[in-house]
Automatic annotation (TrEMBL), chains A, B:
<dbReference type="Pfam" id="PF02504">
    <property type="entry name" value="FA_synthesis"/>
</dbReference>
<dbReference type="GO" id="GO:0005737">
    <property type="term" value="C:cytoplasm"/>
</dbReference>
<comment type="function">
    <text>Catalyzes the reversible formation of acyl-phosphate (acyl-PO(4)) from acyl-[acyl-carrier-protein] (acyl-ACP). This enzyme utilizes acyl-ACP as fatty acyl donor, but not acyl-CoA.</text>
</comment>
<keyword id="KW-0444">Lipid biosynthesis</keyword>
<protein>
    <recommendedName>
        <fullName>Phosphate acyltransferase</fullName>
        <ecNumber>2.3.1.274</ecNumber>
    </recommendedName>
</protein>
<keyword id="KW-0012">Acyltransferase</keyword>
<keyword id="KW-0594">Phospholipid biosynthesis</keyword>
<dbReference type="GO" id="GO:0008654">
    <property type="term" value="P:phospholipid biosynthetic process"/>
</dbReference>
<dbReference type="GO" id="GO:0006633">
    <property type="term" value="P:fatty acid biosynthetic process"/>
</dbReference>
<keyword id="KW-1208">Phospholipid metabolism</keyword>
<dbReference type="GO" id="GO:0043811">
    <property type="term" value="F:phosphate:acyl-[acyl carrier protein] acyltransferase activity"/>
</dbReference>
<dbReference type="InterPro" id="IPR012281">
    <property type="entry name" value="Phospholipid_synth_PlsX-like"/>
</dbReference>
<comment type="pathway">
    <text>Lipid metabolism; phospholipid metabolism.</text>
</comment>
<keyword id="KW-0443">Lipid metabolism</keyword>
<dbReference type="InterPro" id="IPR003664">
    <property type="entry name" value="FA_synthesis"/>
</dbReference>
<comment type="similarity">
    <text>Belongs to the PlsX family.</text>
</comment>
<keyword id="KW-0963">Cytoplasm</keyword>
Length: 355, 355
């Protein structure tokens, strides 16, 4: 099967063209069927391509001069959707010139442009931003929403659960274990919207997921849950607290290891161990936040990602395309609708749901 | 100055009497003016006291047989406020038999009992739970609310800021830098309640704090902020994400260090470094969450704290008593009221507040 092209916003991110093109080239070394639409300044892109002969014949350039600023207000950036590299990359997906878009630019602007250009898929009220994080086990955990929506009601949370589960199934190849983020695991904890969403997810038994109730934020990375579902405010708070603490502990470690000669020697001797730790915590190994619930695949690469990180984001986009995430989400939405119908009709399907 | 007694719920916590009494004795070795009211089973307390001759003459026992269960519903525990060790310790504060209460039992029950027995101080609508966390710098950061209230409006957030600042001033001995937890630092981020609280804190220039706007959760432990103010849901999510990630990274580190002989040798050589890390992250060095905003001091020691952790919680209670936290909060509340009055009267005080 030939994979649709991937549009790359070549101008986004802290280091711009060089890293974006190098990341695409790295991804193509591992997957030679990848084709790219590189959007941005033609001269810069051509110059960056010179170092990557494997990109020849695999990439088309779409020239533009305008770039969305990193700190620009999304509403302002939105007015230049037709002239910026970010806007044109997203638009290529809308027009079918690419199957997915990858950008390392301004998250809010990318979200706004993607929403307007691609619109939400049928049955989804609001898209969500999902990211992958390491766990103590071999498998990663997905968390969403991470800030696409500040608030979320029970209906949004149920949709986020379905979208996150579809993404997780593609990554793990099995039925994922899904939980709602809460401040306790007892039934009466948190908000009404959490209890309502839990009841809905428990009632819809045909969903392609295992719903396990609530999870507290100290258990996200223990390997006991595959998808953590929350509103964008709480998700953003949890994600950044996790990132910040991982950095905090490694910073402490670094200063502890360099505090005495004895420590320095110990550090050198045990370098393989600290390298393993670094590898496990390196955000570049988990790069690529995905906007789920749109008519098309859009992946946000971290602004500070290196080429390996960008390659990771490109591969995430390719996998979601290949495994048709939109169709997987649609299937579970249909099942949810049927479960609600069965319940409304007072059928036997409502037994044991606690409702 | 003679310090009022501290009431200790001797029965709470994972290990009960032995650790609570040992913690009190440890605190008294460092501060020989401390006096205690030990509440719980008399036989067990007497037996525990035998190992601590420095507690003789410094402690009175208040016997009771009933104990609040660790997983008990707060509403259920509340009915036994007059018979349980936790309820009687809090009640001793109400009756003036002690200046502060320390318990390592059920947090929800302790909050409920304290609220009912001590009531909120004048000008405070809701109490908040505040904890101290390590930073990259020498000074600790305080975060509140951590779950006493699931939600908080702008007025609650402003009161939390005042309470947290009073606590921080006692710990740091200087005007603390205060920020509201948000998902971005731009003015338009987050909820209306955050913007309203920020405007109020900016307008009240006479408060004994330096209000610096918003902080994101990856910056809590960088040493750039002394008090992080948030609602109980978000605060609980952030706190547990920080605790869980610190544990996650140290678990990864442990498994990395024991994965090869070379790593093991390195670990032994660099042990002082990892001991330093352990010391810095050990929750026992930062033990003692405080219920702020009540007519009396109540400190929650962590359920799994060891004797050093309990001693820490006891010392926190003593410091809050000694430095009269209630009076400090009252002063800032009065200033806030005056600032509002100045603004309502259209005085010059409203310049530059953005309102």
């Amino acid at each position: 099967m030939s994979l649709p092209r991937i549009a790359i916003d070549a101008m986004g991110g802290d280091e711009g063209v060089r890293v974006m093109v190098e990341g695409a080239a790295l991804a193509r070394r591992r997957h030679d069927q990848f084709q790219f639409l590189l959007v941005g300044d033609e001269t810069q892109i051509k110059s960056a391509l010179e170092s990557h002969p494997n990109m020849r014949g695999a990439s088309e350039i779409l020239h533009c001069e305008d770039v969305v600023g990193g700190d620009e207000q999304p509403s302002k950036a939105l007015r230049r959707a037709k002239t910026t590299s970010m806007g044109l990359a997203v638009n290529a997906v809308k027009q079918g010139k690419a199957g997915a878009a990858v950008s390392a630019g301004n998250t809010g602007a990318l979200m706004a442009m993607s929403k307007i250009a691609l619109r939400t898929m049928p049955g989804i009220d609001r898209p969500a931003l999902a990211a992958v994080m390491p766990t103590l086990e071999d498998e990663d955990v997905i968390m969403l929403d991470l800030g696409a929506n500040t608030e979320a009601d029970a209906r949004n949370l149920v949709q986020f659960a379905i979208m996150g589960a579809a993404y997780s199934r593609i990554l793990l190849g099995r039925k994922p274990r899904v939980r709602l983020l809460n401040i306790g695991t007892e039934e009466n904890k948190g908000f009404d919207r959490l209890r309502d969403a839990a009841a809905d997810l428990q009632a819809a038994k045909g969903l392609d997921m295992q719903f396990d109730g609530y999870v507290e934020s100290d258990k996200i990375n223990r390997g006991e849950v595959d998808v953590v579902v929350t509103d964008g405010f709480s998700g953003n708070i949890a994600l950044k607290a996790i990132e910040g603490t991982a950095r905090f502990v490694t910073d402490l470690l670094r200063s502890a290891f360099t505090s005495s000669l004895r420590s320095k020697i110990g550090f050198l001797v045990s370098r393989p161990a600290t390298e393993l730790l670094k590898h496990h915590l390196d955000p570049n190994n988990h790069n690529g936040a995905v906007f789920l619930g749109l008519n098309g695949v859009v992946v946000k690469s971290h602004g500070s990602a290196n080429a390996a990180g960008v390659a990771n984001a490109v591969e995430v986009a390719a996998r979601l395309l290949e495994d048709d995430i939109t169709n997987r989400i649609a299937k579970d939405l249909a099942e949810l609708g049927e479960a609600r119908l069965r319940e409304t009709n007072g059928g036997a399907a409502s037994e044991g749901t606690g409702k």
